What we know:
With about 110 residues, the protein is mainly α. The protein contains five helices and no strands. This is HTH cro/C1-type domain-containing protein.
Amino acid sequence: MLRLVDPSPRGKGQGTRPPRPRVTITLTDVEQMRLRAALRNLRALYGSWDCLAEVMGVRPGTLATIVSGKPTSPGMAVRAARAAGTTVEALLGDLKVAASCPHCGAAWEVRS
């Protein structure tokens, strides 16, 4: 009878790879603030937290805790951007002046 034996015992440091370090992506404080503002505006657009939560695929209580100040994930920013029909960069980016070109920043002449 042939018996196969593993020459390197598992868990002894031989033959096993070290675990990869976890990389966590988080939103900055400014991005968190802008996401909260965007969620409030989306709630006004959709009419209620329940409707917005259904569109985003989360529970209404989750949105309430985020808006009240609990830190959130970049995944929630992606969901909010999809609900808004825009990109995450546009949702969390700097505010733009309405009287300027969104592409080059050149000032437009406002006529009354």
